[in-house]
């Protein structure tokens, strides 16, 4: 193998190491995003912060109904568990989407680096938004089918249907809207962190490329 061939091999290996580092950055960033999203769904540390439970209880109090709190707690926890499980599937969608951009990178200039733009991230963010809306709606519907289990036997069907209707209006309206807004905010923060992290990897890539002794032969070959 000639010196020039060896250098080209070093360049290819350096490029693959660079891509691998960015993919790791993408994975860590996405896992961080999912943890941020899950923090919005999990049971709050205090009952007073549990918006779903408190909404049901306040509606019941207004209608002078007594609910089975143990069954209520189980029902809400099941809703949250299913929602977390369903939303976790989006992790690989985001990772694969961004990694396709990384893998397609083939530098045409010595100083060219991988760049992920906000415009590109907005495409996957749109997928996330639609995915979340679909999953939240699905899990809210599942919650609705089991709502009648939280009432005492003496509660009439009309009373149950009326409270269920009010609660579903909240879940499909204010709850879902606020959840999507909070997820959007978490996503914007993680997007900025990801873009910055990828740029830092690019700077390291170029620094090593320009200063490593492994590439010095290239300079000598050009003389």
Structure description:
This protein has helices at residues 3-41, 51-62, 69-88, 90-103, 118-145, 157-211, 216-222. The model is unreliable at 218-223 (pLDDT under 50). The two termini are 20 Å apart. Helices cover 78% and strands 0% of the residues. It is rod-shaped. The chain has 223 residues and is mainly α. Helix 1 runs antiparallel to helix 6 and helix 2 runs antiparallel to helix 6 (157-211).
User: Mean pLDDT score, rounded?
Assistant: 89
The radius of gyration over CA amounts to 26 Å
| Number of helical elements | 7
How many E strands? 0
Task: List its traits.
single chain, 223 residues, mainly alpha, 7 helices, rod-shaped
Quick structural gist:
The chain is built from seven helices and no strands.
Secondary structure topology:
Blueprint: H1 3-41, H2 51-62, H3 69-88, H4 90-103, H5 118-145, H6 157-211, H7 216-222
Helix pairs in contact: 1-4, 1-6, 2-6, 3-5, 4-5, 5-6
């Amino acid at each position: 193998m000639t010196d020039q061939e060896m250098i080209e091999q070093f360049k290819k290996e350096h490029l693959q190491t660079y891509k691998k580092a960015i993919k790791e950055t993408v994975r860590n960033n996405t896992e961080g995003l999912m943890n941020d999203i899950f923090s919005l769904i999990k049971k709050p540390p205090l009952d007073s912060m549990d918006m779903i439970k408190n909404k049901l209880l306040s509606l019941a109090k207004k209608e002078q109904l007594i609910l089975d709190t143990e069954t209520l707690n189980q029902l809400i926890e099941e809703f949250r568990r299913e929602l977390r499980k369903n939303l976790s599937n989006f992790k690989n969608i985001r990772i694969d989407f961004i990694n396709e951009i990384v893998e397609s990178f083939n530098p045409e200039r010595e100083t060219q680096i991988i760049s992920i733009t906000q415009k590109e991230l907005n495409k996957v963010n749109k997928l996330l938004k639609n995915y979340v809306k679909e999953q939240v709606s699905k899990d809210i519907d599942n919650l609705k089918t089991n709502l009648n289990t939280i009432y005492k036997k003496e509660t009439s069907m009309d009373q149950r249907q009326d409270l269920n209707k009010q609660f579903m209006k909240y879940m499909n309206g204010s709850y879902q809207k606020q959840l999507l807004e909070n997820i959007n905010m978490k996503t914007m923060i993680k997007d900025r962190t990801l873009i910055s992290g990828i740029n830092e990897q690019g700077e390291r890539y170029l620094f090593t490329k320009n200063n490593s002794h492994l590439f010095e032969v290239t300079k000598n070959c050009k003389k």
